[in-house]
Every structure is written in C-alpha cells, then in structure tokens.
Write the structure tokens for this entry.
Amino acid sequence: MLTREEATIRIQQLREILSENNRLYYVENAPVMSDFEFDALMKELSGLEKQYPDLVTADSPTQHVGSDLSAAKSGGREFARYRHRYPMLSLGNTYDISEVVAFAERAAKSIGNAFSYSCELKFDGTAICLTYRKGVLFRALTRGDGTVGDDVTENVRHISNIPGTLSGTGIPDEFEIRGEIYMPYKAFDRLNAERERDEDPPFANPRNAASGSLKLTDPAEVGRRGLECTLYHMLGENLPFETHDQALCAAKSWGLPVSDKRRICRNISEIEEYIDFWDNERKFLPFATDGIVIKVNELPYQRELGYTAKFPRWAVAYKFKAEQAVTKLLSIDYQVGRTGAVTPVANLDPVQLSGTVVKRASLHNSEQMTLLDIRIGDYVYVEKGGEIIPKITGVELSMRGTDVTFPHFPDRCPDCGSLLVRDEGEARYFCPNTDGCPTQIKGKLVHFISRKAMNVIAGDATIEQLYNLGLVKTPADFYSLTKEDLLRLDGWKDRSAQRFLDSLAESRKVTFDHVLFALGIRYVGESTARELAAYFRNIDALAAASREDLLQVEDIGEVIADSLTAYFKDAKHIEMISRLKSAGLQFETEQAGGPVSDILEGKTIVISGNFSVSRDRMKQLIVSHGGKNSSSLSGKTSFLLAGEKPGPEKMKKAGLSGIAVISEQDFMKMISTGESGRKPADRNGSMQLTLFQETEGK
Ligand code: IVH
C-alpha cells in the first residue's frame, strides 16, 4: 500500500496520463494506448482515490467522462454546441467476470424483488444522442464532455440507417434515443485502403474511423463513409414504458435501428452464457464489438439505483480483451510507397489470429521499431484491431534468445539506392528520388489511372509492362500511346488496345478535382483535392498560390501547403501539367460556382465577421475574381470586407490605418460588375474607389 505522499505523486501522474490519453482517444481519434492499458490505469487511480478520498478532485478523470468536443479552429468552431437535457454518461467496465457477478449481487440486494437484465453487445464506435420531435429528427449531439455535445445533425442525416422521420403508433411528442455510430469492417477496409493509397495516415481501427468521420465538415462525405448506427437507450419525460426492452421494441417499430442481438436474462448463469456465446461469435460479426453491456431491464428499478457522477448504477460493461497472438519475427521488409515513404513490414512465422492466418504485420516506421526495441528472431505480440494488416504491439522479452539480431533501418532506398531523408516532425523516412525511383514512378502511374483518379481501365501488370518497355514514364505519356505501342504488350490484341485507348479518351472528361487528385501530390488526398479545386477553380491559380494563400483554405495546414508549393516549384511538374493540358484533360472547375472575372486583380482583401454564405465561399469568390485573400491587415491590404459582427480589433486597426471597409452587399455589387463581362480595359479604378468610399465609415 502506498503512503499518502507516494499516493499523491502517483495520483498526479495517473491523472496526467489518463487526461492526455482521453484527448488522444476522443479528440484526435488516434489513441496510443490500448483500452486494456487505459482501463487498468483508471482502475489504479480510482483504487488510490478510494484509499485517500480527500485527494479526489472534481477534475480527476475518475469524475468525468472523456470529452470529444472538437477544438476551436482559427476560423471559429466547427460545430455548434448544445447542452444535453440528461447528462450523457459512460459505463463502469470490467474485464473480470467476478465483478459482473458482484454487480448483479449488489443490484439484487438493493432491488430486493425479482427483476431481469437486458444483455446487449457493446458496439465499438462513438456515442450519439438523437432527439426526435413529433416523429422528426430534430438534433443529433455527440457525447461531448457529457454535459454539452457537438451538433452533428447534418452529418447524421447522411447516415443511411438513421431515419429522418418515424412512422407507427405511440411515438412520443419528444424523446431522446442514444446509441453508437460505428463503421462496419467492410467500409473501414475500403476507407483505409483509399487512405493508404493517398498516403493519408490510415485510421488505427473502426472506432477512430467512425468518430473521425462523424466530425467531418462535409456531410456528403460523411454519407460516403458507410457509417451505421445502433440505438440502445431511450430517454424522455413520462414515457409509457415499464422496461428498457419495451422502449427499444417500440423504437424498432417506429423504424429506428435497434440491435436484434439483445437477450433478456433472469440470472447470472444466463448472463455468463450470453457472454461466452458472444466472446466467440463476435468474431463473425461485420462490425467491431468490445464487450457486453448488462443493464437492469425494469425502468423503475433503474431509477431507484440511479447514477454516480460518471456511470449508471443499473448497468455495467464486461469488456473483451483484444485478441493477441505470439509468434516469431522472421525478417523485416522495407517497402517503398508511391510517395516514397518507406514502411517496415514484418514477416512472421504464420500464426492463427481471429479466424485468419497472419504472416505479415506492420511495424509502422523506424520510431515504432525503436520504441518496441525489436530484434529479428524475437517473439512478438500481434493484434488485429480491425486494421488492414495486423500490427506488432509488443515484444516478449522473456522469450528472447541469444541468436537475435538488431534490425537496421536502411539508409538508402531499397529500390533505387537514393539516400533516405526524414522531414522534420515526420516519423517516416522518404526516398527523395520522386521522379526517378522506379517503385515511386510505377506507384504514381497506378495511382493516376485508379478509379477515383482518372478511372482508366488497366491493372498494375499493364503499368509494369508499359514502364518496362519504356513507353510510359510520366502520366502525360499515357496520352501519347498509339495502338502500335500497345500491341507490344504481352497478349494484347486489337480489341484490348482499343479498349484501353477508349478508356484514356473517356478520362479526358474527368473533372478537375479528380485530375488534381490523380497528380499524386504528397498529402493531397481525394477530399483535399476537392477542396482545392472548388477554391482555386483552375490549376494556374493553384500553382500561383503562395503558402499564405493556401493556408486560407479550410483544412489546408502547413504540411499540405508546403507540399503543394514544392510540387509547383518543380519545372518537371509544370511541364507535365502542360502536356496533360494539351492532351485535353480538365484543369478547371466547371462554372457551377458562378462566373469569374479579374475585377479584383491586384487587390489584397481581408475578411472578417459572418456572411450570408460561408467564409470559405467568400474567399473563393475573392480568388475567382482575381483577388488575394489575406488573414491579417497590413500596408498591402486593399480593403477589409466586413460581414456581420466583424472582429473589433480588425475594425479598429482598419480605421486607424485608413483601410477602407466594405460590406458584403457592396462587395457582391462590385463582383457582379465584373461578372457582367466588362473587360479589364473597361474598368476604371475611380469607379471602384467610389464604391469603397461610399461604404467607408458604415
Ligand atoms: S448504455 C448511461 N449500451 O459504451 C450509459 N452503451 O464504454 C448508457 N456503448 O458510453 C450506455 N454499446 O457509448 C450502452 N449496448 C450499449 C452500448 C453502449 C456501446 C458505449 C456507449 C457508452 C460506452 C461506455
């Protein structure tokens, strides 16, 4: 037992570790600790706090649920926040069946009468609270910090199994129903395969993918992610149900997604039977579950048992340990990807894990190898956690033999021999020979023609041959291929060659956002390409954009901005783009977003406040009319475009430095003049100046 002084230090340490891991788990969606380790530390903390109750503080992680609230961005908060009508709590959890027995005994003692349990799967996703008013979905909030949640209603409307409108009888005027949003394995594998291909960091598991996807700012993209929902807890005033089970059956009858894997149990042996059954059977479910939830079924007894600050006393979660296997590490391959990232992949003595034989596992990067202090010949722990390829989570040091050898992360590219580089802040090594390393070249070609890029029908083997025959070295070469060239490929006949040429011809219609994605610029994945295409509208504006211009775009951070500026600085890339342009590919966004002009040419504009359209749209308008958007006022600022509630500091500074302030309405008038087809020569500066002056001082 720790002395009071020792306990004080350990408590402080545990609180820091747990708070940081709560943040990584709920906000970053990138946990570094397994649930099992986290729960063990939480248990240690609550044990010490029980021993020394006067050391409990309100901000201890034992006293509140981890918060998923999104951090505010520079442009403001992404989601509105609302207070939960009923606090949104977590569940007490255990990995130990004897603690489930203790829970059941405590409940029985306190209730004193016969009662039942509802046993359910514990869905491994992210919690959601839906409010329905008069049978219509009114609002969807995340758990947030348990008291207030992020409003993700628009995103939730794009989740296919959540109904916007209910039907049936007995629907209360208003009620809340809570549940879990999760990503089935299939959707998760698809998403991660795309991310791997785009060299976006893959999600560690379906839970992180679900919570990351739920917080996207583009509801249509949320819809594409294949999320699903299961609801498991109804709340409201004077609801006409005696039991939790009745409430869920009613919810199901109104069209809400409720699990059919629930079971009413009468005693502990039925609960154990349910647990044993699902401990094995869950491996065959199409989605991740991390345990079983056992709830007192009768609602009056639930009310009687009540809540602690963090958990209901009427429910407990029994959690399954992640499945692990121990096997020997035989060797490590170092693989080069399309953007040159070098990934260590472990070759293992084949071992059975969650129904499949595992032969290879990811070691992520050199840092991870150092952290694990791994040697070839070590016995290692492999876990599946839903990833595309399993990962190595630890080394069993007690089994380390004397014949193990130290792995050497190569300092040269395993393919082309170039010296590897590591960018600042990057855990990965890269082969810098972007345009000369055969693996990278082939990878880029495969990416260029892939379905979400140019969608040209051809397999990796075709690319391999085209490259080996020296016919295609850059994407632009595809468009110079002739039928004669193609007939040189193994087994290709007139028909296959024609089909390939037709597919290439068809790809000329692919829209600019896909073409931009196809270029394979590092860190420019599908959604980034979409945003850039919508914002800059053509490749020339994008290529001319400065780092500062790029940082104005929502979701574009420094890493992407640097990658883009480096890409467009390279004359080889500019030449390739020009060849692709001549081949007829689309390098501008169609004019659905409104006409463009150059009426704002030479103008640097700062925006502040709220507008009738989004701030991003406002910035797009500036760029598409030839202007530059800047985030801060300076001597170069032409005018401050002020919406509703502009920042007082900016207004003050503009006033002091004599910078004109113009309203949204006047700005719209100004650009519509540009849109009316006036040529630059027709424009007269004094007309614009009059406009600025008119609005000054408003
Ligand atoms: S009932 C008052 N039932 O697990 C809390 N929760 O680790 C009522 N979860 O916060 C929650 N499956 O997000 C309940 N069948 C289920 C569940 C479930 C998953 C989640 C929920 C909860 C977390 C606790």
User: Anything to note?
Assistant: The radius of gyration is 30 Å. The chain has 26 helices and 21 strands. Residues 675-698 have pLDDT under 50 and may be disordered. The longest helix spans residues 4-26.
